[in-house]
Each structure stands twice: as structure tokens, then as C-alpha cells.
Amino acid sequence: MTFSEQLPAEELTSLESALHEALNPLAAALRAHTTGQPEEHMWRGEPVDIALSVLAAWKVVDQEVKRLTAVAAGTAGSYGASYEQLGAVWGITRQGARKKWPDAVSRPTPGTTTLALFGGHAELSPSADTWTWTATAADGTRNDRAAASTKEEAAALAGAFLKDHAR
After folding, report:
1. Given strand 142-148, what is the order of strands in its sheet?
2. Are residues 33 and 95 in the same domain?
3. Secondary structure of residue 92 in the 3-state scheme
4. Residue 151: what are its φ and ψ, rounded to 5°?
5. Domain boundary among 58, 74, 100
6. Which of 123, 130, 125 is nearest to 110 (CA)?
7. Which of 49, 70, 107, 151 has minimal Cβ neighbours within 10 Å of its Cβ?
8. Is 130 among the domain residues?
9. DSSP state at residue 147
10. pTM score, two decimals?
11. Total number of domains in the chain
């Protein structure tokens, strides 16, 4: 059962009303742009043209929702969510989530160690004769690549970084 199926009918009705209220200015702006008419003339004209303007506005909203959904999935994945968890929230299978958001969950390379400390996470990876680490702290600060001579040193540096950037 998806989240929206769990919402009471009156909350879904309120959500639908809010979406329509938010959509109307976009539909009016798109119609004004395509027809050259002022936005206040949105509801004047052939019903099919008005309905198509509304449909065009929903397409813009749909594209933005898809983009924001991918960002949210990637954010959840960066904090350690699995494809199974993403799929459960979206009401699809693990495989469906992997197909929908292929880059949302990072796959650690062999030998990689993941640390979760102070509300953030870090990955330690062997690299030639050194270890590298990347981290995302609880406050959103990222360290994209730092080197250390040993795995223990990389863990200590990553841990200190996560502690310094805890909320």
C-alpha cells in the first residue's frame, strides 16, 4: 500500500484542491504565452484549447515532480537507503526502484568500508598504496576525496570530519 492510499479521502481532496490552485497560474501563463492573450483571459476561448493549456501545465508539473523525485531518491540513497526501501516507499519492487533511479544508491567497490557516525556517513576505499575517503556530514557538508596512508588513518580522519560537521 502506497502512502497516498493510506491518506483519508478528505486529505486527498484537500491535496487535489491545493494542486489545482497551484496549477492555475501556470496554466494561465502557458496559455498567455502560446496565444498572446493576457493571463486573465485564460478561461476565454474554445474549451478544447483551454483543456489543452491545462494539460500542458500538468506536463510541466509532471516533469518537475519527476526531477525532484529523483533528487529525493538520491538524497535518501546518499544517507544509506537501499533500493528495497526506496521501492517500498514508492510502491514498487526493489528492481523497479533500481530501474527508476539507477544512480540513487551507490554501490561500494570491493574493499570499501562504510562508516555511519554523528548523523553522517563516510566511505573508505583502498587506492593503490593509500586509502581514500569521502563523506557527507549531518549538516550536508561533503568531503569528496581525501587520502590517508592506512585504513585506520582514513577512518580517523573521516570520523573527525563527521564529528566536526554534526548538527
Report:
1. 113-117, 120-127, 130-136, 142-148
2. yes
3. coil
4. -65, -40
5. 100
6. 125
7. 107
8. yes
9. E
10. 0.56
11. 2
* SS3 track for 104-144: CCCCCCCCCEEEEECCEEEEEEEECCEEEEEEECCCCCEEE
Q: What residues make up the domain containing 65?
A: 3-100
Read off the pLDDT band of 86 (50, 70, 90): very high
In this structure, what DSSP letter does residue 166 have?
-
For residues 88 and 135, state if they share a domain: no
Give domain status of residue 108, yes or no: no
Q: SS3 for 36?
A: coil
Cβ atoms of residues 108 and 126 within 8 Å: no
Report the percentage of the chain scoring pLDDT > 90: 35
> For the CA atoms of 26, 27, 29, 33, what is the dihedral angle to 10 degrees?
140
Q: Which of 143, 86, 151 minimizes the C-alpha distance to 120?
A: 143
Q: Indicate if the alpha-carbon torsion angle 30, 33, 36, 37 is positive or negative.
A: positive
Place of cell 562504510: 114
Helix (H, G, I), strand (E, B) or coil at 157: helix
